[in-house]
Amino acid sequence: MDHHFDTRESRDPRQRELDLLGHLPGLIAKALKAPGWRKHLGDVDAAAIATRADLARLPVLRKSDLPALQKATPPFGGLIDPVERFGRLFTSPGPIYEAEARQEDPWHAARGLHAAGFRSSDLVLNTFSYHLTPGGFVLDGGARALGCAVIPAGPGNIEQQIELIRHLHPTAYTGTPDFLKILLDAAAASGVESMIRRAAVSGAAFPASLQDEIRERGVDAYQLYATADVGVIAYETSARAGMVVNEDVLVEIVRPGTNTPIPDGEVGEVVVTTTDTHHPWIRLALGDLSAIVPGTSPCGRTNRRIRGWLGRADQITKVKGMFVRPELIAEVGRRHPGIGRLRLVVGRSGEVDTMVLRAESAEKDRTLEAALADTLRAVTKLSGTVEIIGPGDLPNDGKVIEDTRSV
Question: What is the rounded CA–CA span in Å between residue 9 and residue 359?
Answer without folding.
Answer: 41
